[in-house]
Amino acid sequence: MIGPLLAIWQADTAFPSGGFAFSNGLEGLAAEIELSEGDLEGVIEGALRRRWATADRVALLQAYERTPDLAAVAALDLEVEAAMVSEPFRTGSRRNGASLLAAHARIGTPYASEWQATVRAGRAPGHLAVAQGVVWRGSGLEREGAALASGYMTISAYATAAVRLGIVGAVAAQATVRRLLPVLAELAASPLPDNIESFSPRLEIAAARHARGDLRLFSN
Predict the structure, then answer these.
(1) pTM for the predicted model, two decimal places
(2) Domain 2-9+36-205, CATH
(3) Burial (CB count within 10 angstroms: exposed 0-12, middle 13-18, buried 19+), residue 198
(4) Could you report the per-residue pLDDT of 48-64, keeping only the tens digit for each?
C-alpha cells in the first residue's frame, strides 16, 4: 500500500516544489483571449497530449530508469534542455527542478543531494521532469505511480492557476480536473515514445509574450 501513498504525497500541492509560481503559458493566453471552462479543459488536455505525454513523461521515466547512474541522467537532462525551445518554459522547468531537489535533499531522499550537487556544479541543467525521476526513484515510488503523480500535477497546476487568474471558480476547476482524469489514465498507460518531443505553440507563444509583460501574477 505504500506505493500509492507515496504518489499521493508527491502529487500533493502542499509539497514545497515551487509550482505555485508558474502558469505554464496560461496567464499569457488568458491575457489575449477570454477563456471559458470548456476552453480551459481544451488547453489542459492539449498540454497533456502534446507536451506531458510526449516530453515530460518520457524524461521522467527515462530518468527513473537511469537512476542511480547520474552521468546517464545528466546526458538525458541535456537532451531535455535541447528539446525545450521556449525560454520561459526552460527557466520555469529549471526553477521547479531546483525547488523539488532542495526539498528532497532536506528530507534526505536517496540520490537527491548527489543530483543537486551535479546540477549546482553545472554538469546538468536540472529540469523538473528529470529531477522527479531521480528523487521519486529514491523515494520508492513505483514507475506507474510516478507517471500518474506527474500527470496529475500538470492538470492541478493549470487548474490552480486558472482559479488564481479568475478564469474559473474553485468548483468549476475541480470539475475540469475530474473530467481530465480518464485522459491522464489513457496517456499514462500508452507506450512510451523513444524520443522527447512536444508541440504546444499556442502556450509557448503566450508564455513568450507574457515574459515581456510588466504586470504578472506568475513567472511564466
Answers:
(1) 0.93
(2) 1.10.4190
(3) buried
(4) 999 999 999 999 999 99
